[in-house]
Amino acid sequence: MNGFARFSVSSLLIGGNPFQTTAIYCLIAFLEQHYGVHFAMGGTGRLVDGLVGLIEGQGGEVRCGAEVESIVVEGDWPGASGSPRRVYSADIVVSNADSAWTYRRLLPPSARRRWTDRKSNARAIPWGVRLVFRREPAISDVKHHTILMGPRYRELLADIFKRKTLASDFSLYLHRPTATDPSLAPSGCDAFYALSPVPNLEGGQDWSELGEAYRQSIARTLEATLLPGLGQAIVTSKFVTPQSFQDRLCSFRGAGFGLEPVLTQSAWFRPHNRSEDVGNLFLVGAGTHPGAGLPGVLSSARILDKVAPDAQAFA
User: Fold this and answer.
1) In angstroms, rounded to a whole number, what is the distance separating the alpha carbons of residues 156 and 171?
2) DSSP per residue, 71-94
3) β-pairing, 93-95 with 281-283?
4) Nearest Cα to 8, choosing from 206, 147, 198, 164?
5) What SS3 class is residue 25?
6) Domain coordinates of the chain in residue numbers?
7) How far apart are CA 289 and CA 132, in angstroms?
8) Most buried of the four, 64, 123, 264, 310, by CB within 10 Å?
């Protein structure tokens, strides 16, 4: 890996083209070196469990399997319409859906002034395909984080970000969380995911046709490099594409990190946590301020302590 590639991986892994992304994101490498990198033992699911416990401990209720179909706005006050069809009145609504999805799909056009279809059609990041798999037997010589650079760098990024074409070569980020937390796989096994950056759905790729061949290509590359014998060692696997992110997680154009982190779409320039269009509508998650990545997403929730009114305001 050349020097530029080494120092630009942080911006790439939050969805930015290192040749276009603001140098502000070099702070990621500094912060990681200065303060260290933190990992939730038990995986990100433990963070979810903790947040659910916090909500329920304060008397709240979490309802799963009830997709919100729309945010109903009467005057300046939002409510939510869910499935099965039922309208919930609310003093405030917090949306952790992708910001573009919230404005384009959940809010009626009549309620949008700043974040119209044109504005929310801003540059969405490319996204990656993920091959998630469990391997048996466990191994000991692969680190928690590994970057496998392909034969090209600048031109591959141009294929992904500018030309939005699916190249035959690729670079991979290989994540082995069991290197830190063996509890994430059964005894004697390892858990991995391999991430390959690809264009978002604006590129027009049909992942129902292309997906299996691309998955096999990733597996062959891993088997020929870090994980010999991988084909016979996989116990279970799952392949996730940008189409999966749009269909299952309502990510606009399948871009899991939301807006591309160029300067004019970073930090304060992202959709604000307090909606600029609808009173008492608040946004959290990767598509809003401060940005993508697990620290940014959790920080967006903490910001609500500053900007959202408390219950006494509606008493």
Assistant:
1) 9
2) --EETTEEEEEETTTEEEE-S-EE
3) parallel
4) 147
5) helix
6) 44-122+257-314, 127-249
7) 29
8) 123
**Cα angle 122-128-133, degrees, rounded to a multiple of 5:** 150
Instruction: With beta carbons less than 8 A apart as the criterion, state whether 78 and 243 touch.
Output: no
162-217 residue pLDDT tens:
899 999 899 899 999 999 999 999 999 999 999 998 998 989 999 999 999 999 99
Residue 111 has pLDDT above 90, yes or no: no
Contact 99, 285 (CB under 8 A): yes
Q: Which of 187, 243, 194 is nearest to 216 (CA)?
A: 194
Q: Which of 251, 252, 269 is nearest to 261 (CA)?
A: 269
pLDDT at 249: 85
pTM: 0.83
Q: Which residue has the tokens 């264009």?
A: 199
Instruction: For 205-250, give the DSSP string.
Output: --HHHHHHHHHHHHHHHHHHTT-TTHHHHEEEEEEE-HHHHHHHH-
Cα 28 to Cα 88, 131, 140, 183, 269, distances in angstroms = 40, 25, 28, 28, 19
Three-state secondary-structure class, residue 165 = coil
Total residue length of the chain = 315
Residue whose structure tokens are 């946004």 = 283
Measure the CA angle with vertex 257, ends 303 and 293; round to 5°.
55
The residues facing 80 across adjacent strands are: 88
Distance CA 61, CA 59 (A): 7
Number of H helices, E strands in the chain: 9, 11
Q: What is the dihedral of CA 240, 246, 251, 257, to 10 degrees?
A: 30
Q: Give the model's confidence band at 48: pLDDT under 50 very low, under 70 low, under 90 confident, else very high.
A: very high
CATH of domain 44-122+257-314: 3.50.50.60
